[in-house]
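Could you show me some protein's one-letter sequence and the numbers that encode its backbone in two labelled lines?

___
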Amino acid sequence: MSPPKLYGNNRVFCKGRFVSGPDVHSCVGTVLMILVPSIVWQVEVGTFYAIEYSFVIPVFGFILQALSIVFMLGTAFSDPGIMPRQKDFSERYDERTKVFRSKEPPRYYEIVLRGYSFKLKFCTTCNIYRPPRTTHCSLCENCVERFDHHCPWLGNCIGKRNYWLFYLFVSFTGALNVFILASSVIHLVILTLNFQASEDAGDAFLRALKDEPMSAVLTVYAVGIVWFTAGLWMYHNYLVSTNQTTYEQIKGVYSNGQNPFNRGTLGNYRDVLLSQVRPRFFDAHTGKLLWPPKRVTATDLKEARASTFGKDSAVPLERRLDEAEGAVREVSDGQLPKLAVTSRNPTSVVKSAEQEAPPALRPQSQLETLPALDLGTLPQDLGPGSAEPQSVSCPVSLKNTPQPLTGPASPTSPMNPMNSPKSDVLPSPSAIVSGRAL
């Protein structure tokens, strides 16, 4: 049985490594619009500058051209932040009532974020409540996190995960457009000035156009699209500086001037363009959820301990370490020793625990060298008729202990806090230290 589909009309390539929109074929035209003028410029204009001036100029142009195409393809074949779909509400089993849900969730759900009220809309296609700034794209049929717009030039949505790629694509494309326009115009001007030595200005300019017609074509082409590329770059700088998306700006979501996501100009640039990009929510090829990562359960911990220490030694060792940490927490007021597990051998781990354990858990051979431990005034348990807790001074000296902690205590032994013959078995070391046995 194939896993349920977590996304809409997107196209997946290379086993889920690349994700695009349903109209990704439109980016072929965009590639040609960048690639063809770039090749023409390198052959005609770039060669002129390399011969007459320096090869640095055509190399710089090549870098702009390569970066523009790379970031364009990166934007067109990246996950914009698709929210994975959930099961239909009728397929959801309610553990509390032991029945399947029969009623659709409420259409809106109100929350307060940063002091502002937001209405989360329930998407009947994706069966989720859309988080703030998430919008459903009607072309891709997905809810996209921090949805900006669906770009028809790239055939993909622009969202939280690929907006920085789109911004770089627009920036380098605008810079490339301006560079080609300026260099082509300068090329024609230089040729015109060279021809003016023997002809007038008008004839010299016509001769320059006749000798280098491709420079003239590049100039006209660059003038025709520079308003779009450079203008788009300026528009998105305005959006980034105010921390808005194209969708929010067109809809006038923050027309009242109250934008809870506005952090100032520098903070907005850092938030939109420099913040860490989270992993994908799911693998589009296998249909498995990837983020957030799976929570570690008690069963996973038990299996991990059993595989590390063995089934027989895992439980006793765990109890011993827990007792050691609990006793040290009570004695040293939260300063826990580091019980480093440096070996898979349970024996070495137990030895390490004995060395780091508090005095009450150390072997009897180490008790002779321990200083006296004065517990001071400890509260006594309240009896049925006690009106208030009584204070008992209980100096416990481990230095003069005549028998091990694990053996029976004599009635007069200082290890028996009750000093009563009715106590046949000593309380646990943690109970002695905390005073619960008193």
About this structure: The mean pLDDT is 75. The CA atoms of residues 364 and 404 lie 6 Å apart. The chain has eleven helices and 13 strands. The chain has three domains: 11-85+137-273, 295-357, 370-438.
